[in-house]
Amino acid sequence: MQKYSNDYSLVTTENEHYSEGTKTKHTFSKFDYDLFDEEKNTVEKIIRVKKITTNKNEKWNIIENKKIIFVVDGAKISKKEREFLRTSDGFNFLIARGKIGIKSLLSLKKELKKILT
Question: Is the pTM here over 0.85, yes or no?
Fold first, then answer.
């Protein structure tokens, strides 16, 4: 059994079962049943947002399948926008934009202004 509690790595549990004299191994994952489209037989992308806070700055990393696809630097956005991104709605906004694809910080800021006004 593998468990990683401090990061966003995959949590798996392995169970061994014996049936008719043969040993089978089952791996259960928190992502297996949620992100697999049975009709298309494809695995969906995993989009996550991780907030990194340093002494004077905040950054939001938008991650797709363990690869950072965009970084929002808190120093380059307004205080009102930073406060919004700290909320759960802000995280959901970044996840939705990550699924669509973020072209630039300017396009992200325009979308944020639409929501905040």
Answer: no
